[in-house]
Amino acid sequence: xxxxxxxxxxxxxxxxxxxxxxxxxxxxxxxxxxxxxxxxxxxxxxxxxxxxxxxxxxxxxxxxxxxxxxxxxxxxxxxxxxxxxxxxxxxxxxxxxxxxxxxxxxxxxxxxxxxxxxxxxxxxxxxxxxxxxxx
Length: 135
What we know:
Elements: E1 14-15, E2 29-31, E3 34-38, E4 42-48, E5 57-62, E6 65-70, E7 91-97, E8 108-112, E9 115-121
Parallel strand pairs: 2-7
Antiparallel strand pairs: 1-2, 3-4, 4-9, 5-6, 6-7, 8-9
C-alpha cells in the first residue's frame, strides 16, 4: 500500500490594512486565520492568535458586529539584539457580522495555546399556541 501524501498549505500572515481608521498602537496588526464550524445548536469559531492570552483579548459585540482584538507583546531576551527574524509579531483584529439567529447574550470565549475559541449558540425556535377569545 502506497503512503498517502499530505499537501501542506503554506500561508503568510495577512497584515491588516485599514484605510478607514488609525490604530492607537504603533505596530503591525494581522488578520487571524479562523476555522468556523456549525452545528444545529451553535457556531464555533477557532482563531489562531499566537502570543495572545485571555487578559490580552478584547471581544465586543456592537450593532451586530463581533470584533476581536488580540494584543501581543514581543518577548526579546534580555541582553540580546535581534539580527534576523522569520516571524513578525503584531496584534490581531478581525470582525464578523453576527446573525439575529445567534443568542448574543450567551456567546462565550476561551483561549488555549494561542487559539481563541468562540462559542456562538443559536437562538432556539420557540413555538406556542395562542388562544383566541371572543370579543
